[in-house]
UniProtKB/TrEMBL annotation, chains A, B:
UniProt key word Cell inner membrane: no
Protein name: Response regulator transcription factor
Source superkingdom: Bacteria
Classification via InterPro entries: CheY-like_superfamily, NreC/VraR/RcsB-like_REC, Sig_transdc_resp-reg_C-effctor, Sig_transdc_resp-reg_receiver, Tscrpt_reg_LuxR_C, WalR-like
Modified residues (4-aspartylphosphate): D57
Domain Response regulatory stretches: 6-122
Matching Pfam families: GerE (PF00196), Response_reg (PF00072)
Keywords: DNA-binding, Phosphoprotein
Chain ranges of the HTH luxR-type domain: 151-216
Classification of source organism: Bacteria, Pseudomonadati, Bacteroidota, Flavobacteriia, Flavobacteriales
DNA sequence: TTTTACATCACCAATTTTGGTGATATACTT
DNA sequence: AAGTATATCACCAAAATTGGTGATGTAAAA
């Protein structure tokens, strides 16, 4: 009897987990060695169970899929990762591929394609569902995405400090408020704000907020 | 042999459908008589197969769960509906209950609770997952909900002119710009802005933009 | 008819933002 | 060692925003 492929599932929707468990149980090649409802401690759990393949959602509480992927590459794990997400945003796809994911499926995909994906990545190949392939094609061809790419570049050039200040601006805080919160001079805050406006090519704080909301740089709640 | 409970599944995520199929297949009491990946023609398909229970997501292409529920009550169907959604927004829960749904589960729920829910609604009872029960409790105690209601009131009190100006503010236009666009004095524009800020209880234009985006008062594109 | 709501405008003072330039220190690359 | 990126701060002037009060005309509602 040959070794089964060890699989770990991570998704905050337990119905989906339970469904996948039922699906994977039908095939003797696969063995689900664990599952997680959030990203907290996920990397360790995967390592513990020595899973070959991790099937993971992006949106998870505590720690999202992006952060988990980052941790994986930092710690140099060899476990293959398949992203199973509702979203097919080209930016997101590009990001997870860059971070070393071996496959990407949307939740619109059929259950069977998951089995194919697992086989493929286990054998060291990559696997993308057809709609994701289309999106990837878009990234490399379409001029349509110019704007988005420009924005992406801009986002990439935002420093962590600037992002922090952007967050406070999006909470209706004034320059002075932010200065007090961070124990820096309001002048410094305004410098950061100006640099942000220049980088993001907007004309005012309103523009900053719009950019942040459009590109999900901040979370609107609280 | 007694009659099986006939079930129809509707969700735009096929992996979830496939998962649920696998789960439901384990129990001989249930029979899945059909499934749909969108809301188009869903009502007719459910009627055709004479399903007892419909398990449905809210977010679906073509026609969402709310519209489907509306159609159900218009046509007077007796098929029980269980909503299976990612969201637990009190407003949404209230809405679907009003529209006659018999159950509401979040996708965070365990797969087994779906079986319980099906049994319950088939017997004419209602079924809500525990986190949904909490939300319903919130609606009646109105702790959480107060904010939302306040916001709704505020929205209702915005005049059309104010809304128009809010739109321009959300396009990064200055008071003077807006005045020129509308052929009114910048002073008037600022008065409108001030009234808006007072009504919406925000401290700055940034607050206005946040309010507008949160409540979909404007469209972010262009 | 009186009241209320709406849109309009003005004036004012205090504060904030915007848009520059320039400087310093630290850390990291090449 | 020189260059680059980042975070820090200062100073300045112009422009915009904010927070008031008060006033007018119009239209709709009580």
């Amino acid at each position: 009897m040959e070794t089964k492929i060890k699989i770990h599932l991570a998704d905050d929707h337990q119905v989906l987990i339970d469904g996948l468990l039922a699906v994977l149980k039908t095939n003797p090649l696969f063995e689900v060695v664990g599952f997680s409802l959030d990203g907290e401690g996920l990397v360790d759990r995967v390592a513990e169970n020595d899973a070959h393949v991790l099937i993971m959602d992006i949106n998870m509480p505590e720690k999202d899929g992006i952060q988990v992927l980052r941790e994986f590459s930092e710690k140099g794990f060899t476990c293959k990762v398949i992203i199973l997400s509702s979203y097919d945003d080209p930016k997101l796809i590009k990001e997870v591929i860059k971070l070393g994911a071996s496959g990407y499926l949307t939740k619109q995909s059929a259950g069977e394609s998951i089995l194919d994906a697992i086989m493929a990545v286990y054998e060291g190949k990559q696997y993308f569902s057809s709609n994701i392939k289309d999106k990837i094609f878009d990234i490399f061809t379409e001029n349509n995405h110019r704007e988005a790419l420009k924005a992406e570049d801009a986002i990439a050039n935002i420093t962590t400090r600037e992002l922090e200040i952007l967050g406070y601006i999006c909470e209706e805080k004034s320059g002075r408020d932010i200065g007090e919160l961070l124990n820096i001079s309001p002048n410094t805050v305004e410098t950061h704000r100006k640099n942000l406006m220049k980088k993001l090519k907007v004309k005012s704080s309103v523009g900053l907020v719009l950019f942040a909301t459009k590109h999900n740089l901040i979370n609107l709640n609280q």
